[in-house]
Specification:
By secondary structure, this protein is mainly beta. The chain is 6% helix and 50% strand. The longest helix is centred in the C-terminal third of the chain and has 8 residues, at 100-107.
Length: 141
């Protein structure tokens, strides 16, 4: 087993108000909880996601899906004044779609970066399975 990290850099956030929703935040889903919330009107959102690599499989509390389809969720929601977070959409960053050289580096324990715009073509928070061509993967160490 190798422990590594994925550093996600989100740019071009959609703003804190959209489609009748207010105080929008984005965070990483860890099991059923969304952590590391960032308000959606900042220039960049950055998240560090620990990942365990075991025999080519990705694991950890922020890794979801069956073995052949592992992914990390970026979850969008409204944050109430009392701090309550109500999720309304999620984006999947599919780990099996990173370039082979990046996957090999992650398996060797390197930190990798995944950079993407967090606003979709209609101006809202990016959601569903993020197409591979919209994510720039690179090795940082």
């Amino acid at each position: 087993m190798t422990t590594a990290a994925i550093h996600i850099v989100g740019r071009q956030l959609p703003g804190a108000t959209w489609d009748g929703r207010h105080n929008i935040h984005v965070g990483v889903q860890r099991r059923n909880e969304v952590i590391d919330l960032v308000r959606a009107d900042v220039p960049r959102a950055e998240f560090d996601v620990p990942v365990e690599v075991v025999d080519g499989d990705y694991r950890g509390p922020s890794v979801h899906g069956p073995r052949e389809q592992r992914y990390v969720y970026l979850s969008w929601g409204e944050r109430a004044p009392d701090g309550t977070f109500t999720m309304f959409r999620r984006a999947k960053l599919r780990l099996g779609r990173m370039p082979p050289a990046v996957a090999d580096a992650l398996a060797a324990g390197a930190t990798v970066h995944a950079e993407l715009a967090l606003t979709d073509v209609r101006g809202g928070p990016i959601a569903a399975s993020v197409p591979s061509e919209l994510i720039t993967w690179r090795v940082t160490d």
